[in-house]
């Protein structure tokens, strides 16, 4: 089965004093690219959260967001007036220097800026909070993996359709091969006929013709392309984490299709090759999203 690297997962866990909400967003990336946003008091747990997420999703661009809500009526909430004043002074200076209008609603702007509102102050993280936060992260990973599996199923159907189309186009090639060889031979003989008083060894001519036609033979390319198509389909059905391998197979498919095009010397076969390239390009674009 396939897993998509693009996904979203949300997890919530709470204890007697706090509620933790964790959101994880992922995009495609060759390695694990991790970034996080969380209250400063919980920053010491970033490494633990990263290790837990890395063990679940392997690779991708990961954006982790953690919010903490204190339960009950004793929530500690305060406004950092000094920080708000500093933000306001800088915004006014930016407005003057860049010729921009001042905000119509200062409260809406300032209260959204970092560290203006302090809530749920925590001096030290106890074991209960630590376990609850990791539980929320684990739940978010579960939701993310489900999302990735669902998107991976769509990718699998997408690839299966494109592979089937390329295989169908490949079956159309043989009907043009006999005509293609006849055309090549006729074109060479017509060219020789245009040369006045051309004198050549007929036996040598036949040998060279056979050699030239053998160079244009595409049976090996057809066979290898067919094998690559089967291997791509087979790989999709194995364990997750085959994205890079599928990318390599797609590259090999491209080489065989390009060789078919360069050897074809036939208008209808060139059209078939162009259609194959179009389907393969769509595969290459989407295979980047596969884990």
Give a written overview of the molecule.
It is built from nine helices and six strands; from the N terminus they run βββαββααβαααααα. The radius of gyration is 32 Å and the shape is elongated. A four-stranded mixed beta sheet has the order 1-2-4-3. The chain starts with 6 loop residues before the first strand and ends with a helix. β3 (32-37), α1 and β4 form a beta-alpha-beta unit. The longest helix has 46 residues, at 127-172. It is of the alpha+beta class and 291 residues long. It has helices at 46-57, 81-98, 106-110, 127-172, 174-193, 202-215, 219-236, 243-264, 267-287, and strands spanning 7-14, 18-27, 32-37, 60-70, 77-79, 117-119.
Provide tags for this entry:
3 domains; alpha+beta; two-stranded antiparallel sheet; Ribosomal Protein S5, domain 2; four-stranded mixed sheet; 291 residues; 6 strands; 60% helix
């Amino acid at each position: 089965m396939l897993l998509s690297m693009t996904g979203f997962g949300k997890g919530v866990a709470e204890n007697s004093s706090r509620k933790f909400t964790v959101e994880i967003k992922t995009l495609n990336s060759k390695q694990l690219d991790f970034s996080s946003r969380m209250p400063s008091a919980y920053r010491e747990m970033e490494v633990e959260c990263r290790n837990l997420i890395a063990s679940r999703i392997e690779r991708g661009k990961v954006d982790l967001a953690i919010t903490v809500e204190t339960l009950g009526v004793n929530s500690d909430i305060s406004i950092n007036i000094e920080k708000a004043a500093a933000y306001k002074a800088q915004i006014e200076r930016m407005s003057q220097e860049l010729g921009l209008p001042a905000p119509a609603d200062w409260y809406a702007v300032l209260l959204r800026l970092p560290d203006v509102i302090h809530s749920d102050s925590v001096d030290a993280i106890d074991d209960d909070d630590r376990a609850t936060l990791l539980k929320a992260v684990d739940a978010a990973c579960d939701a993310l993996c489900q999302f990735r599996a669902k998107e991976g199923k769509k990718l699998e159907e997408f690839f299966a359709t494109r592979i089937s189309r390329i295989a169908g186009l490949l079956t159309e090639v043989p009907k043009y091969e006999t005509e293609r060889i006849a055309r090549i031979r006729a074109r060479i003989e017509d060219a020789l006929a245009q040369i006045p008083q051309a004198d050549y060894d007929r036996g040598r001519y036949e040998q060279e013709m056979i050699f030239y036609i053998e160079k244009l033979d595409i049976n090996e390319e057809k066979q290898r392309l067919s094998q690559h198509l089967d291997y791509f389909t087979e790989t999709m059905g194995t364990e997750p984490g085959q994205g890079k391998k599928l990318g390599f197979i797609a590259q090999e498919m491209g080489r065989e299709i390009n060789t078919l095009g360069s050897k074809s010397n036939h208008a209808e076969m060139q059209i078939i090759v162009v259609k194959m390239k179009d389907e393969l390009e769509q595969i290459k674009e989407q295979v980047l999203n596969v884990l």
